[in-house]
Design brief:
The chain is built from seven helices and four strands, in the order H-H-E-E-E-E-H-H-H-H-H. By secondary structure, it is α+β, with helices and mostly antiparallel strands. The protein has a domain of about 110 residues. Strands 2-1-4-3 form a four-stranded antiparallel sheet. InterPro entries: ELMO_dom (IPR006816), ELMO_domain-containing (IPR050868).
Length: about 210
């Protein structure tokens, strides 16, 4: 199951490259710790792989009126760099590829590994939302359940927002590898603050959701 999901993630991340064996040094390019990425999912980390696949499958399109629509990644082949225009003149932004290849901002010499960062983000969200308890009691967890009642993919959508927010925090702090945990904490703090806002009724209402438009 993990092996099949890893193959799917590779094909989504690198559509023009040959799929390597499941034990290959090439996996490190995506940000796994070693040549066998399946070892990174010990302790229930498989949810983070599902989150990464969701992120890779969807990208954002901003139409001329500024509205946001999620579309299947199928048409990315018409926009190989992740940016461009559709037949209707809409701007296409591939947030997953932008993060994977660290295209934004002035990057550190020692960057955070993309895939491992994704695992840490998934665990952070599970803890922040108190999802391991039978009934969340935190403000963030209670608000998230409200989101979930209207959007069954709310966790995946929040994950995409969190990843983009984390990278923005990373750049703003001019952080390096050893400061990743501090950036993760500040990302959690910002998400908790936004989840507590009175006028937030879905993931798309979060101020940080706007980062996915860039």
């Amino acid at each position: 199951m993990v092996q099949d999901a890893l193959k799917q993630l590779w094909r989504l991340a690198y559509p023009d490259r040959e799929l390597p064996s499941l034990k290959s040094e090439l996996w490190k390019e995506m940000g796994w710790q070693g040549s066998d990425p399946s070892t990174d999912f010990r302790g229930g980390g498989y949810v983070s792989l599902e989150n990464l696949i969701f992120f890779a499958k969807f990208y954002l399109v901003m139409d001329l009126d500024g509205h946001i629509m999620e579309l299947q990644r199928l048409v990315v082949k018409y926009c190989p760099l992740g940016y461009g225009t559709s037949s209707k003149g809409s701007e296409v932004l591939d947030a997953f590829q932008s993060l994977l290849h660290k295209r934004d901002g002035s990057r550190a010499e020692w960057e955070y590994p993309f895939a491992v960062a994704g695992i840490n983000l998934s665990f952070m969200l599970v803890q922040m939302l108190d999802l391991q308890s039978g009934k969340p009691t935190t403000m963030a967890g209670i608000r998230f359940l409200e989101f979930l009642s209207e959007d069954e993919m709310a966790f995946d959508n929040l994950y995409c927002v969190a990843f983009r927010l984390m990278d923005a925090q990373w750049l703003a702090k001019r952080a390096s590898y050893m400061e990743f945990n501090d950036v993760l904490k500040s990302t959690r703090t910002q998400l908790e603050r936004e989840l507590a806002l009175e006028d937030v009724f879905s993931v798309r209402d979060l101020p940080a959701y706007n980062l996915l438009k860039r």
